[in-house]
Design a protein that fits this description.
homodimer, alpha/beta, Rossmann fold, 6-stranded parallel beta sheet, globular
């Protein structure tokens, strides 16, 4: 069930294909790669920002160049090209298709998180066999599947799930920041990647939103039990949002598959509505309560903390916002990217310690 | 997106393959076919009950014979064979495979609701091309899909969704009974089949549990908008249960795709736990409240009634139970199969009339 790349990713120079989308929310795969694999991010392709550096447009990523064509990108000797956008529905447009073919001709290995599998495209397959490049279709999942048992992680590891007020609020980022902080503290921890961006960092995982819907929970369960082996804690990257008209089914299936011992709520303070939908995000304490009510028939699941994306606020405002959220929810809160994951990891440790199995 | 059979079903003599499972809950496809297409149900294959009639084992279905082999079934001249079992996970075992091959050799068309597609089986394909038979893989869905818009049915039809306390409690049966009662009253109504059994009766639909999980809501939305054309009301067959560890993702995706104007709760009074899981079914009023809380961020959705399966009770007990549930929930209740769908259709009409668009 686990999907792993046919080639090594870490330590190889990478071109991020993000044409027309950098550095918007749709380019989240590219942005996350730059954040957590900065050394490997050799060059970004985005015609609109060509000539600038990543730092100019994103505020991180030092002087990584942005170019307009694959031809120009080749000057930076990329070995891998990542389709660094996550379009709604996951389809491939003609511009990306052309760029991918050029990358293959130049001998690069390709990573794609699209719903459409590049390996199923005849022209792309022919180009691959000519150049010797390989493709990792991150979203490829087994057609086979199992129905969730409802037992969650049975390896002895406790599981912690990130859930959100919307998609694209930073559940993957938060999961990874929590993981790194937990590692720094010497905890025996792993994490389960459930979406394309996380899987590229983790170099394995299952794209839960691509699984046949009967098997969402079963696939999550299988993944958590793989990542939990020999660990005390497994952090599970959530997907979608329980209040999201398009993705809530994936979210709930994943919740019941993971059967977490505690959850962390992720929220972007700039967002008051679900993106692209006319759905207001309720107060965070209500969102927390909703998740607990939905889990309640199966398991009482406490929340360990709230992870905020405060990037739209100045530093003082951000700290005020965090205090306000702590007061409203009664939980430790923080902005992991900005101020570290310490408080929320404290919350997780407290949750898991308080409530023994 | 809509899946339709390559041959006519209604009016043709049908063999129901239900070996080892008749008339258990796993043979629900066969049982429902007998209930609603009694004239077409020519013969049942189930070795354990061979020699009896369907009436002997099920209490309905008159003297439809039960036989032990396809060879014996041929005496009743079936033109279609239906894989009449719905095993957990939807896989095909060797016994059924052998029987299906025999049916094909005998010239029967085949209907299968399994997750495994018969048409993808080389030996079965070869047998088909030899005999000229055709196969309808009911669960086959398009790989393509769309993300739900959150707008539900936009044809002008109001939508009514059945939801359950578990899977296999009778959501399909209730949807179909409500449909027939609504037709009897002259309402301009259609229904949307979302699972294999319903699709066989409807001769079209989408097997929602087979759709890629990102597209559950989008597929439901597409289906409801097809069935809603030119209608005042579209009844939507629900799937799974919001409290089901294995299937809740499908259930919620379907709820958000259908965006119902009202819901009907379906419950089997014999069941106090989710079948095969250690999850207690909460009091019905709590189950109702849970569905409403989950829908609330998107839409306030009233319940129109409660449909009970009281088959484990005597008639007087059943009527008492219905009154008790009416008192507990404040909603009209009934057992559609036993006492008719009148009360709940009244409830639906009241719901849809009270709350104009």
């Amino acid at each position: 069930m686990l999907n792993t790349p046919p080639f090594r990713i870490k330590g190889r120079k990478t071109l991020l294909l993000a044409d027309g989308e950098f550095p918007t929310a749709k380019a989240k795969t590219a942005v996350c790669f730059i954040r957590y694999r900065e050394k490997d991010a050799a060059v970004v392709l985005d015609r609109g920002n060509a000539g600038k550096t990543v730092f100019d447009t994103l505020g991180i990523g030092r002087n990584i160049p942005i170019v307009a064509t694959v031809e120009e990108a080749k000057a930076f000797h990329p070995e891998i090209a990542i389709v660094g956008v996550a379009p709604r529905g996951g389809h491939l447009d003609d511009i990306f298709r052309e760029q991918i073919l050029e990358c293959i001709d130049a001998g690069m290995d390709i990573i794609s998180g699209l719903h459409v599998f590049l390996e199923d495209d005849k022209e792309i397959r022919e180009a691959l066999s000519k150049s010797g490049s390989q493709i990792w279709d991150v979203r490829r999942v087994s057609e086979e599947g199992t129905i969730a048992s409802g037992n969650g992680c049975t390896t002895g590891a406790r599981s912690v799930l990130t859930v959100g007020t919307d998609c694209g609020v930073g559940k993957m980022t938060v999961t990874y920041e929590l993981y790194m902080e937990a590692v720094r503290r010497g905890l025996n921890v792993s994490w389960a990647a459930t979406g394309q961006t996380g899987m590229i960092l983790r170099e394995r995982g299952i794209a839960i939103d691509r699984v046949i819907s009967d098997f969402i929970g079963g696939a999550t369960e299988a993944l958590v039990n793989l990542e939990g082996v020999g660990k005390d804690v497994v952090l599970v990257e959530g997907q979608g949002a329980l209040i999201h008209p398009g993705y809530a089914g994936v979210t709930l299936g994943l919740m019941f598959g993971a059967m977490p011992d505690c959850m962390v709520l992720v929220h972007d303070v700039e967002r008051d509505k679900v993106r692209e939908y006319n759905v207001e995000i309720p107060p965070l304490s209500e969102v927390i309560r909703l998740h607990q009510l939905v889990m309640a028939p199966l398991k009482d699941v406490p929340f360990a903390g709230v992870a905020l994306n405060t990037s739209c606020l100045g530093e003082e405002e951000a700290r005020d916002m965090i205090r306000t959220v702590e007061k409203e929810t009664g939980l430790p809160a923080g902005d992991m990217v900005r101020f570290g994951a310490g408080e929320v990891v404290d919350g997780i440790v407290e949750c898991l310690t308080k409530k023994g199995r």
